[in-house]
Amino acid sequence: MKTTNVVTALLLAGVSSAQTPVGFTPAVTDKLEVTFGSKNVATGGQPLTKADTARQPTIGISGPADGTYIWISTNFLNPSAGQPATYLHTVLRDFKASGAASAAGVTTLTTTANGPVAWFAPQPAAENPPHPHRYTNLLWAQPANWQVPSAANTMLQNQKLGFDVPKFITAAGLGNPIAANYFNVTG
């Protein structure tokens, strides 16, 4: 009985620590703080409305942030209707800490960059039956003097539908993402 409880607790701890959806590659365990106005994405898969997500969110990470960062947002279209596809929404570079960590230990990150792919708000169409579109947000440490390599730039400009995150990571010369979060929006 005690062994079963320990195993169950470990399984639940693993599930609760995942910040990317089940089956998403790459899997990330550290939380990216994503806040739309006053609505914080507290848990992965939290439902939000198109109105909630109309403006670019504020992002942040736990603890100090002494580097430069890249943020990507992708949308997994129609995951429950049998026709899944990933769509690239946003890639912004040059995020830096905008001050010291808050009392809650979160450092807000800001950028003046509007690319290489500008903010594109979630806008899923009304569907019957309605189903959530999953928006996954990933954060990387940006390599020093990073410029978008040609192969990665081609993906960003020409392969938004069917965007392959692992392939982009390789083409862009990025390591593993350091933080992530995801939310759902229904049309």
SSE map:
Elements lengths: L1 H16 L14 E5 L2 E2 L5 E3 L9 E5 L6 E9 L7 E13 L8 E5 L5 E2 L14 E10 L8 H9 L6 H8 L6 E8 L1
Parallel strand pairs: 3-10
Antiparallel strand pairs: 1-2, 1-4, 4-7, 5-6, 5-9, 6-7, 6-8, 9-10
Helix pairs in contact: 2-3
InterPro entries: PEBP, PEBP-like_sf, PEBP_euk
GO molecular function, one term: peptidase inhibitor activity
Organism: Xylaria grammica
Spans with pLDDT under 50 lasting ≥5 residues?
1-16
Number of helices: 3
Annotated CATH homologous superfamily: PEBP-like
The global form is globular
Signal peptide: 1-18
Organism: Xylaria grammica
InterPro entries: PEBP (IPR008914), PEBP-like_sf (IPR036610), PEBP_euk (IPR035810)
Protein name: PEBP-like protein
Walkthrough of the structure:
By secondary structure, this protein is α+β, with helices and mostly antiparallel strands. It has a single domain (2-186), classed as Alpha-Beta Complex (Phosphatidylethanolamine-binding Protein). It is 18% helix and 33% strand. The protein contains three helices and ten strands. It has helices spanning 2-17, 150-158, 165-172; strands spanning 32-36, 39-40, 46-48, 58-62, 69-77, 85-97, 106-110, 116-117, 132-141, 179-186. Strands 1, 2, 3, 4, 5, 6, 7, 8, 9 and 10 form a ten-stranded mixed sheet that branches. A hairpin with a 7-residue loop joins strand 5 and strand 6 (85-97). Helix 2 (150-158) runs antiparallel to helix 3. The longest helix is centred in the first third of the chain and has 16 residues, at 2-17. The radius of gyration is 17 Å and the shape is globular. The N and C termini lie far apart (45 Å). Residues 1-16 have low confidence and may be disordered. It comes from Xylaria grammica. Residues 1-18 form the signal peptide. It holds the Pfam family PBP. This is PEBP-like protein. One of its GO terms (molecular function) is peptidase inhibitor activity.
